[in-house]
Automatic annotation (TrEMBL):
Domain GST N-terminal: 28-102
PANTHER family listed in its UniProt record: THIOREDOXIN FAMILY PROTEIN
Protein's UniProt name: GST N-terminal domain-containing protein
Gene Ontology CC, one term: chloroplast
Length: 106
């Protein structure tokens, strides 16, 4: 149902996505039912950015890794080893992804 409501977001390449993928995969901390993490995953798919998904539901052994990296349990949280960026808050993540991995408009 969420896919229907979001009109197929994340199911097609965004027209301004860079052609070459980043050298290293990004790392996304999230959990499946988090609506903000879903929006970030859709953007990663639209931009065709390879990433490692770290599911960190309550009680997950990966939760400590998230807290060590971000200082909190809040998701989504993304780590980009290509630029050294580590950020949370889905709006900041989306802005970062499209500014970094999309072709600038002229």
């Amino acid at each position: 149902m969420p896919t229907v409501l979001r009109a197929g977001r994340g199911m097609a390449l965004w027209e301004k996505a860079k052609q070459d993928p980043p050298p290293e995969k990004l790392e996304l901390f999230s959990y499946e039912n988090n609506p903000y993490a879903r929006i970030v995953r859709e953007a990663l798919c639209e931009l065709e950015i390879p990433y490692i998904l770290q599911n960190v539901g309550e009680g997950s052994p990966r939760e400590k890794l998230l807290v060590d990296m971000s200082g909190s349990k809040e998701v989504p949280f993304i780590v980009d080893p290509n630029t050294g960026t580590r950020t949370g808050d889905y709006k900041k993540i989306l802005s970062y992804l499209f500014q970094t991995y999309a072709v600038p408009t002229s």
